[in-house]
Amino acid sequence: MLIPTNIAEGQARYSAQEFHFFLTRARGSLVEVETQLIIAQNLRYFSPEYRKKLLDNASELGRILNGLIGSIKKAA
What we know:
This protein is mainly alpha-helical. It is built from three helices and no strands. 11% of the residues are buried.
């Protein structure tokens, strides 16, 4: 939940610099989710195949988020 919340909060701020700050927080939250997925699979909450699918989705989100951060960084 923190990833979209940070993006929304940053977008509502008045400057590109603040938006950039919240986007980097969202990226940090995404890395936390990826870590939790690995831990959950190690605890056998789901299969390695399902973990791969979830991590692939997280990776795609990371690429999108990094692109947005890059576009905002120029203005920040």
